[in-house]
Amino acid sequence: MRRNRNVKILATLGPASSTPEQIKTLFHAGADIFRINMSHGSHEDAAARHAAVRAVEEEVGRPIAILADLQGPKLRIGAFADGAKPDLQIGASFRLDLDKALGDERRVQLPHPEILKALEPGARLLVNDGKIRLRVTQADPKFAETVVEVGGVISDRKGVNVPDVELPLAALSAKDREDLAFMCDLGIDWLALSFVQRPEDILEARELAGDRALLMAKIEKPKAVERFDAIADAADGIMVARGDLGVEMPIVEVPPIQKRLVTASRNRGKPVVVATQMLESMIENPMPTRAEVTDVAHAIYEGADAVMLSAESAVGAYGPEAVATMDGVAQTVEKDPAYRKGIVDSRTPARPSTSDAITAAAREVAETLDLKAICCFTHTGTTARRMSRERPAVPIMVMTPFRRIARRMVLLWGSHCVVTQDLGRFKEAVASGIRHAEKDGFAHDGEHIVITAGVPFNVPGTTNILRVARIGEKIGPGDTIGE
After folding, report:
1. Is the full-model pTM beyond 0.90?
2. Is 482 inside any structural domain?
3. FRET label pair with 371: which of 110, 430, 457, 467, CA 20 to 30 Å apart?
4. 274 pLDDT exceeds 60?
């Protein structure tokens, strides 16, 4: 099965989408990657969802990527006496402290001494997704006196965001470490890291994950935006997580930040996902709002590799419809001449290396000669990432003998991943490319594709050859193509 679009769709699994039948329905509606959110459910739940995706993968015969999303350090206030829900008024004083006593209208526990030690007068504390805003007036290692700037009802264990302070928190909580080990042992393809603040957070996770999964940095804190270049260099992919980002920063700044981060990720050849509240109304409604459709379209126009559904597919009543809506928006946008013009205008020059030059040349040849597909052979995925960075006007067939590499590359813009047999010579690669291009409907008899690979064959990092091949061409035993 081939998709008639380049951007990928990432769907979150949950109570509404856990069985193989439900997952298969989402796949046929257009989902390419499935997200397992480690903030909810047990390891047994995650293992069952992982197994269900792999069962669907086996049935449909296409590589499917799985992304495990770690919870990250969750900061919450304590509980209130008798389940009270005080209504904080603007201008009132409110204290957060380490006292375990149940809270009231004047104070509540903040069981995070590391936060209290880091706070300074003037810092903001955002409670319950920013619905309540407190400003620190007095800071002490044991308490923080605040004044209410935006009031509202506060209740037990609501989340706290601290946008103005770099928190001295461990990159991975104890739960994150357990989840990371468990999911990597299962065989997931991507690992998303929440609340990244510095590139060292990525390096710590990489030390634990090794080469068992690629790492995606979720950009959802102001410090991550400030240090984006270093974080992006350390990570394998980027997620623009607009939910918490829109809480911790002025919400009007989120659209230009999104555009800037998508562009910077593309320039680096790092896949970038735009996430959060894309089709939020479809949790309960079969049709999205016009604003939501426009939001999805803008992410696609910007050149994002993937757009993501969260609660829409995890707990929503219309998960398949939400996926199908994204699929329809993507196909429509990508047919717009303005979309292609924007992609071309934002393309950056190839880097000065043989592999990058060959990749750029393959794109140029394919577009100039109106070839039907670019077929790139890869052992590590690097060639596929280079080709996706070029954003060619024709499909990219990613050919690899390794299923785990094929799964990882599913996330890339424009990729159609194929698991091949282990090939020993370039002429075998040409024959395989021709065969799969015809089999998967990219080209027909007499049409042409362009093939890139490296000689000597099967040596990572040696992409150095480009070949235009015709469908129906016979690659005989006496052929010396590329040798």
Report:
1. yes
2. no
3. 457
4. yes
